[in-house]
Amino acid sequence: MKNNLEKDPSPYLQQHKNNPVNWQVWSKEILSLARAQKKPILLSIGYSSCHWCHVMAHESFEDKETAELMNKYFLNIKVDREERPDIDFIFQNSYQIFNQSGGGWPLTMFLDENAVPFMGGTYFPKTSQNGMPSFKEVLINVGSVYLEKRNEIVKQSQLIKKSLELNKSSVINQNLEPILENMIKNLDNEKGGYKGSPKFPIFNVYDTLMYFYNKTKNIKLLELVKIIAQKLCSQGIYDQVEGGISRYAVDENWMIPHFEKMLYDNCQFIALLSKYVKIDNKDYYKKKIIQTINYINKNFFVFEKKLLGSSYDADSDGEEGKYYVFSYDEIKEIENIQKYFEVLPAGNWEGKIILKEKAYPPEDVINKLKSIRNTKNKPFFDNKVQLDLNCLWVSSLILAHSVIPNKNFLEKAETHFNQIEIHFLKDEIYHSSSKNLVFLEDLAYTINALIDLNEATLNPKYKIKAIEMCKKTIDQFYIKEKKIFQKNKIKFNDLFVNPIDISDHTIPNGNSVMLQNLTRLGFKKESQELATSLNGYLNIYKSFMASSLKSIDYFNEISSGKTCNISGCN
Length: 570
Prior knowledge:
- With 570 residues, the protein is an alpha+beta fold.
- The protein contains 22 helices and 18 strands.
């Protein structure tokens, strides 16, 4: 067996095609081989712009001695979490059960010969440090234990499957306000996000707060959204030179970003700011929306497909943030630079300067900063085009058009959706590079974009297509016995359990979006059934279901005869 990644189109898998590890692509054939050989599987999940994925790759996967141990004890499978979100979802949940803590990337899971996990971790260092064993030690220990106790490990698979089953209460309807209040208690009232660090934008939470403000006019909810809007626009997490936000900040002041930039974050950033600007109509926020849209259109555009790619790496030339930060000497001569940004000779991060905004800078200052940045090598761009995220972009442009109507954002949204139809929707609908794979979020966000286009343009063709796709989604993804949508197609599931996902992750959950879609399109029976089902889950998993809170309330309001849209009800 040899490394088999060379022909896979995933940019992440391409980064590992020359590893001495005999990496395989997840497939039914490889899983059958593991069963036939009674060999455990080492599953490594990551994505191309993941900093710690790169670190572990350089330390371990490129190391011949480590690779020999991996090849000796395991059948090794590499997965791009953006190509296979269903695999990532199931094994992240498995990690959390084993370790009683959140997972992350790289995810390193050890599976039995039937592809059922029995232990796992995230990043393992090359040498033991800070109480963590070295990756080589882990490989030897896990490999040896499997050889000695294979039968016992295989027998425990039913316990793992049982642990991954979602519980559901008998509650079919409930007062949502106490759940909303509980959600607010976890937020940082001064700095935004959750308390402490690292700081993630958690757009699903703030979008829900924005919805309930529009419904209740509770000023406390608007104040929380105002805080996050101010912090995201002015601090280091926002790229003050080109626009757009980084994935998260490592500190509690939003100052030091983890420099990778994701399409999904920036879509939701534009959407949230656009909704907020409807209340707080400041040009400042409009400028941030325009700058970010221009940045995404220019830098994420994949010319061959005329659609948007996925992300930018944090690193360039082997250094995290090198492209984005400045030295004091580079920018000290720019006229009035200290009037607009915090610029100190000692810097504010490892001797370098991350730009923190003091006042909105004029165009000539930005252009001079761009000229300096343009002398540097850009980080790696993952040009993987994903259906769900491109549809999320369409919906974000439509929201931006609603507050900035003179920039042709609606026209751009229609043009972009035309390309989506050409590339993704002509024959079989698919998620990214593989024509055999499509996920609930792909259908959910496509339908959502179609409804948004219909409401913005009044063109009935979009609604007709949305209804057609809703029926297809129900047919292919809806589990009638459980009254919930599955993450992948029911007939083509290649995982050891059915992936049923009701939690928000990097984007709002597919079941939550589908409830909005069904409600907006008038699928009364189906939306009632799904709302009742989500209520049963909400009573147990409320901490992870912010967007479902909004979707259930929206369904309730529409069902009671109120005039509503997805931004709120009158």
